[in-house]
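Per reviewer request, we include the raw input and output of the structure prediction for the construct analysed in the revised manuscript.
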Amino acid sequence: MNDPISPDSGKLSFKTKLAYGAGDMGPGITATLLSFSLLFFLTNVAGLNPGLAGTVLLIGKISDAINDPIIGVLSDRTKSRWGRRHSWMLFGSIPFGVFFALQWIVPHFSANTEINQWALFAYYTLIAVFFNIAFTAVNLPYTALTPELTQDYNERTSLNSFRFAFSIGGSILALAIGGLSSNWFENPSQQYLAIGLGCAILSVFPLYWCIWGTEERYTSENSEQIPILEQVKLALSNRPFLFVIGIYMCSWLAFQLTASIIPYYVTTWMKQDSYFQVALLVQVVAIIMLFVWSNVSERIGKRMVYFMGMSLWIIAQSGLFFLQPGQIVGLYLLSMMAGVGVATAYLIPWSMLPDVIELDELKTGVRREGIFYAFMVFLQKMGLALGLFLVSLALENTGFISSTSSEGLTAQPDSALLAIRIAIGPLPTLILLIGLLLAYFYPISREVHAEILLKLREKRLGLETSADHAPPQMDVMDEQ
């Protein structure tokens, strides 16, 4: 049924691409709301102080990072009539939706303020841990489907365009619901609960579309049964993989830091009533540019596309620091520029990773998609957890004043406002510059990848080729 050596089986139908893309709609919805709104919700609706709110995010992300490699390996080893990836998605989808909805409830545990603070902290921490387990159970096997659907270089970029079109489309839908809900509910706690419930339902159904609309065509029957630490060691010995890790971590950390701080920036510094419109503008531009960058990458390559997008994003992030209250036109223009760069952060690193997996298969003879995907996300989440925690501590130590939904927005001291501006301007700018440097030295070009696939096909067919015939650009493989 699965024909891993067929040279003409790389092309996918439009129907399959749509079904695959739908699988990232739910994660896109939930990840966007959590990125843009959770820290703000915890401090300004639930009333947690920034230190405790940041600790909730820290523990949730650390637990998320820990379960990624475990579920990645289990996914690689799963044998089921539904498929090793699809079975996890099938049974994890309902818990994924339920625990997401529970994160937007504001329970009241005690009339004592301090006791209530710690009880809320315990509640949100517990829900965050369980949600992240459910999220990984559906999203990690989903992302590992990419190299199992096609081995074609350009087809993978196209496939990821569909994936992130649904992801960003889901995020746009979530932000639009958030913006509209402010008109439907005067009480912020009711507003966020309605957003959470509605988006939880919208997140689950597309996962089943993906499950029934795709087929695991390249599943390998000889997955290597070796310890997790040994697999991590092997993954880290792949030099191009280290570059992809760094590029992805820098891109996504910059985005997540900006997303978490932008509600504070828009409401307390720019003096606007709602931040959903700004977040929505970024995502709308990103989804338009996603297909533009995908087409451009087929002509000039993934690395050059990354350079172009990041350059505009860096200018936008730097400019946000210098904006003054009331300069709304400038805010919208810079948000649009940021959206152009965000599209490349969605598309390029995930398009690079399957190429790295092929290189590993060529060197080792086995496919370990799960561990590569899991370990990349593991390091990214560890960095993100630390980054968001430090931002929350900076807010607390600069005098940020938390509030509850009944109190409305509170005027913040100048020290807290400066910390917010630094977190949205200079800090992500520096991170993006590091990612740009790593992309410059990334060693797998389109030509190198073509040679990797050629050698894989020859190896699978049992053909031996002389090392004397290897072209000079294949030095990237010899360095592994």
